Amino acid sequence: MQRIGIIGFGNMGSAIARGLRAEHPNLAIGILEPNAEARRKAETELDAISYTDAPDRFFRDCTTVVLAIKPQDLEQIAEQLSPHTADTAVISVLAGTPTGRIAAALGTKRVARFMPSLAASVGKSLVGVAFAAGADEHLRETARTVAAAIGRPLEIPEHLMAAITGVSGSGLAYAFTFAHALAMGGVSTGLKYDDALAAAVMVLDGAAEVLRATGEHPQALASKVSSPAGTTIKGLTALERGAFTATVIDAVEQAALRANELES
Q1: Of the candidates 140, 161, 182, which is a domain's last residue?
Q2: Measured CA angle at 84 (ends 78, 87), to 5 deg
Q3: What is the reported pLDDT for 2?
Q4: Nearest to 130 by CA among 168, 89, 91, 165
Protein backbone atom coordinates (compact mmCIF):
# COMPACT_ATOMS: atom_id res chain seq x y z
CA MET A 1 0.00 0.00 0.00
CA GLN A 2 1.29 3.46 -0.89
CA ARG A 3 -1.54 5.76 0.12
CA ILE A 4 -5.07 4.84 1.18
CA GLY A 5 -7.87 7.32 0.57
CA ILE A 6 -11.02 7.32 2.69
CA ILE A 7 -14.22 9.00 1.55
CA GLY A 8 -16.35 9.68 4.62
CA PHE A 9 -14.94 9.93 8.12
CA GLY A 10 -17.91 8.72 10.14
CA ASN A 11 -17.90 5.71 12.45
CA MET A 12 -16.65 3.14 9.95
CA GLY A 13 -14.34 5.44 8.02
CA SER A 14 -12.66 6.57 11.23
CA ALA A 15 -12.47 2.96 12.54
CA ILE A 16 -10.66 1.88 9.38
CA ALA A 17 -8.31 4.87 9.56
CA ARG A 18 -7.49 4.16 13.22
CA GLY A 19 -6.90 0.49 12.52
CA LEU A 20 -4.62 1.27 9.60
CA ARG A 21 -2.67 3.85 11.58
CA ALA A 22 -2.17 1.38 14.44
CA GLU A 23 -1.08 -1.48 12.17
CA HIS A 24 0.82 0.60 9.60
CA PRO A 25 2.19 3.71 11.35
CA ASN A 26 3.97 5.03 8.25
CA LEU A 27 1.06 4.62 5.85
CA ALA A 28 -0.14 7.82 4.17
CA ILE A 29 -3.90 8.31 4.63
CA GLY A 30 -5.91 10.81 2.59
CA ILE A 31 -9.51 11.78 3.28
CA LEU A 32 -12.46 13.41 1.56
CA GLU A 33 -14.84 14.66 4.27
CA PRO A 34 -17.07 17.76 4.13
CA ASN A 35 -17.54 18.01 7.91
CA ALA A 36 -14.91 20.38 9.33
CA GLU A 37 -14.82 18.78 12.80
CA ALA A 38 -14.39 15.29 11.37
CA ARG A 39 -11.60 16.57 9.13
CA ARG A 40 -9.87 18.19 12.09
CA LYS A 41 -9.94 14.92 14.05
CA ALA A 42 -8.57 12.99 11.10
CA GLU A 43 -5.74 15.46 10.62
CA THR A 44 -4.76 16.00 14.26
CA GLU A 45 -5.38 12.53 15.72
CA LEU A 46 -4.40 10.32 12.77
CA ASP A 47 -2.08 12.50 10.73
CA ALA A 48 -4.39 12.18 7.73
CA ILE A 49 -4.19 14.54 4.76
CA SER A 50 -7.39 16.28 3.72
CA TYR A 51 -8.07 16.45 -0.01
CA THR A 52 -11.60 17.81 0.45
CA ASP A 53 -10.90 20.81 -1.77
CA ALA A 54 -8.93 18.80 -4.33
CA PRO A 55 -10.77 15.57 -5.25
CA ASP A 56 -8.87 15.27 -8.51
CA ARG A 57 -5.56 15.13 -6.62
CA PHE A 58 -7.09 12.72 -4.08
CA PHE A 59 -7.73 10.14 -6.79
CA ARG A 60 -4.31 10.70 -8.35
CA ASP A 61 -2.44 10.27 -5.07
CA CYS A 62 -4.41 7.45 -3.44
CA THR A 63 -3.74 3.98 -4.83
CA THR A 64 -6.90 2.52 -3.24
CA VAL A 65 -10.01 4.35 -2.02
CA VAL A 66 -12.30 3.25 0.82
CA LEU A 67 -15.89 4.35 0.24
CA ALA A 68 -17.40 4.82 3.71
CA ILE A 69 -20.44 7.01 3.09
CA LYS A 70 -24.13 6.38 3.76
CA PRO A 71 -25.65 4.11 1.08
CA GLN A 72 -28.35 6.63 0.28
CA ASP A 73 -25.67 9.21 -0.58
CA LEU A 74 -24.00 7.08 -3.25
CA GLU A 75 -25.65 8.63 -6.31
CA GLN A 76 -25.03 12.20 -5.16
CA ILE A 77 -21.39 11.50 -4.26
CA ALA A 78 -20.84 9.56 -7.49
CA GLU A 79 -22.19 12.47 -9.53
CA GLN A 80 -19.65 14.78 -7.92
CA LEU A 81 -16.70 12.41 -8.09
CA SER A 82 -17.24 10.28 -11.22
CA PRO A 83 -15.11 12.59 -13.42
CA HIS A 84 -12.12 11.42 -11.33
CA THR A 85 -12.95 7.79 -10.50
CA ALA A 86 -12.48 5.85 -13.75
CA ASP A 87 -10.53 2.63 -13.08
CA THR A 88 -10.07 3.52 -9.39
CA ALA A 89 -9.51 0.65 -6.96
CA VAL A 90 -12.44 0.94 -4.53
CA ILE A 91 -13.24 -0.79 -1.24
CA SER A 92 -16.89 -0.23 -0.33
CA VAL A 93 -18.32 -0.58 3.17
CA LEU A 94 -21.81 0.48 2.03
CA ALA A 95 -24.42 -1.86 3.52
CA GLY A 96 -26.90 -3.35 1.06
CA THR A 97 -25.00 -2.08 -1.98
CA PRO A 98 -23.72 -4.67 -4.48
CA THR A 99 -20.36 -4.27 -6.19
CA GLY A 100 -22.15 -3.88 -9.52
CA ARG A 101 -23.92 -0.76 -8.30
CA ILE A 102 -20.66 0.72 -7.01
CA ALA A 103 -18.91 -0.10 -10.30
CA ALA A 104 -21.66 1.50 -12.39
CA ALA A 105 -21.82 4.63 -10.24
CA LEU A 106 -18.06 5.26 -10.21
CA GLY A 107 -17.07 3.91 -13.61
CA THR A 108 -14.65 1.26 -12.40
CA LYS A 109 -14.58 -2.54 -12.40
CA ARG A 110 -11.98 -2.68 -9.61
CA VAL A 111 -14.34 -3.01 -6.63
CA ALA A 112 -14.15 -4.87 -3.32
CA ARG A 113 -16.96 -4.99 -0.80
CA PHE A 114 -16.74 -5.24 2.99
CA MET A 115 -19.33 -6.29 5.57
CA PRO A 116 -17.79 -5.30 8.93
CA SER A 117 -19.49 -4.81 12.29
CA LEU A 118 -19.38 -2.31 15.13
CA ALA A 119 -16.50 -4.35 16.56
CA ALA A 120 -14.30 -2.72 13.89
CA SER A 121 -14.01 0.19 16.31
CA VAL A 122 -11.91 -2.02 18.61
CA GLY A 123 -10.19 -4.03 15.89
CA LYS A 124 -12.28 -7.16 16.54
CA SER A 125 -14.67 -7.32 13.59
CA LEU A 126 -15.18 -10.25 11.31
CA VAL A 127 -15.07 -8.62 7.87
CA GLY A 128 -16.89 -10.30 5.03
CA VAL A 129 -14.90 -9.54 1.86
CA ALA A 130 -16.22 -10.01 -1.66
CA PHE A 131 -14.73 -8.93 -4.97
CA ALA A 132 -16.21 -7.85 -8.28
CA ALA A 133 -15.05 -9.81 -11.30
CA GLY A 134 -12.80 -6.93 -12.35
CA ALA A 135 -10.84 -6.81 -9.08
CA ASP A 136 -7.12 -7.23 -9.73
CA GLU A 137 -4.57 -8.82 -7.41
CA HIS A 138 -3.36 -5.46 -6.10
CA LEU A 139 -6.86 -4.57 -4.92
CA ARG A 140 -7.40 -8.03 -3.47
CA GLU A 141 -4.19 -7.87 -1.44
CA THR A 142 -4.89 -4.31 -0.29
CA ALA A 143 -8.44 -5.21 0.71
CA ARG A 144 -7.21 -8.11 2.83
CA THR A 145 -4.71 -5.81 4.54
CA VAL A 146 -7.31 -3.13 5.24
CA ALA A 147 -9.77 -5.72 6.59
CA ALA A 148 -7.06 -7.19 8.85
CA ALA A 149 -6.53 -3.72 10.36
CA ILE A 150 -10.05 -3.81 11.85
CA GLY A 151 -10.36 -7.52 12.60
CA ARG A 152 -10.25 -10.68 10.52
CA PRO A 153 -11.11 -10.90 6.82
CA LEU A 154 -13.31 -13.73 5.55
CA GLU A 155 -13.38 -13.90 1.77
CA ILE A 156 -16.75 -15.07 0.46
CA PRO A 157 -18.82 -15.01 -2.76
CA GLU A 158 -20.87 -11.83 -2.85
CA HIS A 159 -24.19 -13.70 -2.71
CA LEU A 160 -23.28 -14.76 0.86
CA MET A 161 -22.95 -11.18 2.11
CA ALA A 162 -26.49 -11.35 3.50
CA ALA A 163 -25.52 -14.41 5.56
CA ILE A 164 -22.51 -12.55 7.00
CA THR A 165 -24.84 -9.66 7.83
CA GLY A 166 -27.15 -12.00 9.73
CA VAL A 167 -24.38 -13.77 11.64
CA SER A 168 -21.80 -11.02 12.19
CA GLY A 169 -23.11 -7.56 11.30
CA SER A 170 -26.40 -8.05 13.15
CA GLY A 171 -25.07 -10.83 15.38
CA LEU A 172 -23.24 -8.34 17.56
CA ALA A 173 -26.62 -6.98 18.64
CA TYR A 174 -27.74 -10.50 19.55
CA ALA A 175 -24.65 -10.88 21.74
CA PHE A 176 -25.36 -7.55 23.46
CA THR A 177 -28.94 -8.64 24.04
CA PHE A 178 -27.79 -11.96 25.50
CA ALA A 179 -25.32 -10.14 27.78
CA HIS A 180 -28.16 -7.98 29.10
CA ALA A 181 -30.44 -11.00 29.56
CA LEU A 182 -27.70 -12.87 31.43
CA ALA A 183 -27.14 -9.84 33.64
CA MET A 184 -30.87 -9.56 34.34
CA GLY A 185 -30.82 -13.20 35.38
CA GLY A 186 -28.16 -12.25 37.89
CA VAL A 187 -30.32 -9.39 39.15
CA SER A 188 -33.23 -11.79 39.50
CA THR A 189 -31.10 -14.00 41.72
CA GLY A 190 -29.74 -11.18 43.89
CA LEU A 191 -26.81 -9.44 42.17
CA LYS A 192 -26.59 -5.74 41.41
CA TYR A 193 -26.98 -5.07 37.66
CA ASP A 194 -23.47 -3.59 37.24
CA ASP A 195 -21.89 -6.63 38.92
CA ALA A 196 -24.06 -9.03 36.94
CA LEU A 197 -23.24 -7.29 33.66
CA ALA A 198 -19.51 -7.40 34.44
CA ALA A 199 -19.88 -11.13 35.06
CA ALA A 200 -21.85 -11.59 31.82
CA VAL A 201 -19.18 -9.78 29.81
CA MET A 202 -16.48 -11.96 31.34
CA VAL A 203 -18.53 -15.05 30.54
CA LEU A 204 -18.81 -14.04 26.87
CA ASP A 205 -15.13 -13.13 26.69
CA GLY A 206 -14.09 -16.36 28.38
CA ALA A 207 -16.32 -18.46 26.14
CA ALA A 208 -14.83 -16.86 23.03
CA GLU A 209 -11.29 -17.47 24.24
CA VAL A 210 -12.00 -21.12 25.07
CA LEU A 211 -13.55 -21.68 21.64
CA ARG A 212 -10.53 -20.11 19.95
CA ALA A 213 -7.97 -21.89 22.11
CA THR A 214 -9.43 -25.39 21.92
CA GLY A 215 -11.04 -25.43 18.48
CA GLU A 216 -13.65 -27.77 19.92
CA HIS A 217 -17.29 -27.85 18.86
CA PRO A 218 -19.44 -25.55 21.05
CA GLN A 219 -21.70 -28.44 22.03
CA ALA A 220 -18.72 -30.51 23.15
CA LEU A 221 -17.59 -27.67 25.40
CA ALA A 222 -21.12 -27.18 26.77
CA SER A 223 -21.23 -30.88 27.65
CA LYS A 224 -18.02 -30.49 29.67
CA VAL A 225 -19.72 -27.83 31.80
CA SER A 226 -22.85 -29.94 32.28
CA SER A 227 -22.59 -32.48 35.07
CA PRO A 228 -25.38 -35.07 35.56
CA ALA A 229 -28.44 -33.57 37.28
CA GLY A 230 -26.39 -30.41 37.91
CA THR A 231 -27.03 -26.69 37.64
CA THR A 232 -25.94 -26.16 34.03
CA ILE A 233 -28.13 -28.85 32.49
CA LYS A 234 -31.12 -27.32 34.27
CA GLY A 235 -30.26 -23.95 32.78
CA LEU A 236 -29.73 -25.38 29.30
CA THR A 237 -33.06 -27.18 29.55
CA ALA A 238 -34.73 -23.86 30.36
CA LEU A 239 -33.09 -22.24 27.31
CA GLU A 240 -34.33 -24.99 25.00
CA ARG A 241 -37.78 -24.91 26.58
CA GLY A 242 -37.85 -21.31 25.42
CA ALA A 243 -36.69 -22.35 21.92
CA PHE A 244 -33.35 -20.59 22.38
CA THR A 245 -31.52 -22.28 19.47
CA ALA A 246 -34.46 -21.99 17.08
CA THR A 247 -34.97 -18.34 18.01
CA VAL A 248 -31.34 -17.44 17.32
CA ILE A 249 -31.45 -19.29 14.00
CA ASP A 250 -34.61 -17.39 13.10
CA ALA A 251 -32.96 -14.07 14.05
CA VAL A 252 -30.05 -14.75 11.69
CA GLU A 253 -32.39 -15.83 8.89
CA GLN A 254 -34.61 -12.77 9.31
CA ALA A 255 -31.64 -10.40 9.26
CA ALA A 256 -30.24 -12.11 6.16
CA LEU A 257 -33.64 -11.97 4.47
CA ARG A 258 -33.88 -8.23 5.13
CA ALA A 259 -30.32 -7.73 3.86
CA ASN A 260 -31.30 -9.44 0.60
CA GLU A 261 -34.41 -7.27 0.34
CA LEU A 262 -32.32 -4.11 0.70
CA GLU A 263 -30.14 -5.15 -2.23
CA SER A 264 -33.01 -5.81 -4.62
Answers
A1: 161
A2: 95
A3: 80
A4: 91
Distance in angstroms (rounded) separating the CA atoms of residues 53 and 235: 60
Provide the β-strand partners of residue 49.
30
What is the Cα–Cα distance from 123 to 24, expressed in whole angstroms?
13
Whether residue 157 sits in one domain with residue 86? yes
Does residue 198 sit in the same domain as residue 154? Answer: no
Q: Are residues 110 and 228 in the same domain?
A: no
205 shares a domain with 144: no
User: Domain range for residue 181?
Assistant: 169-263
Quick check: 40 and 102 in contact, CB under 8 A? no
pLDDT one-digit tens code per residue, 44-73: 999 999 999 999 999 999 999 999 999 999
Question: What is the pLDDT at residue 104?
Answer: 95
pLDDT of amino acid 264: 73
- Provide CB contacts within 8 A for 52, sequence distance 6+: 31, 32, 33, 34, 39
Q: What pTM was estimated for this model as a whole? A: 0.91
Stretches where the chain sits below pLDDT 50 are: none
Q: Give the other-Cβ count within 10 Å of 203's Cβ.
A: 14
Burial tier of 91 (Cβ tally within 10 Å: 0-12, 13-18, 19+): buried
105-141 residue pLDDT tens: 999 999 999 999 999 999 999 999 999 999 999 999 9
Q: What percent of the chain has pLDDT over 70?
A: 100
Report angle CA 96, 136, 161 to the nearest 5 degrees.
Answer: 25
Number of domains in the chain: 2
Q: To the nearest 5 percent, what fractions of the chain are helix, strand and coil?
A: 60, 15, 25
Contacts of 30 (CB under 8 A, 6+ apart): 3, 4, 5, 6, 48, 49, 50, 51, 58, 61, 62
Q: Same domain, yes or no, for 147 and 179? A: no
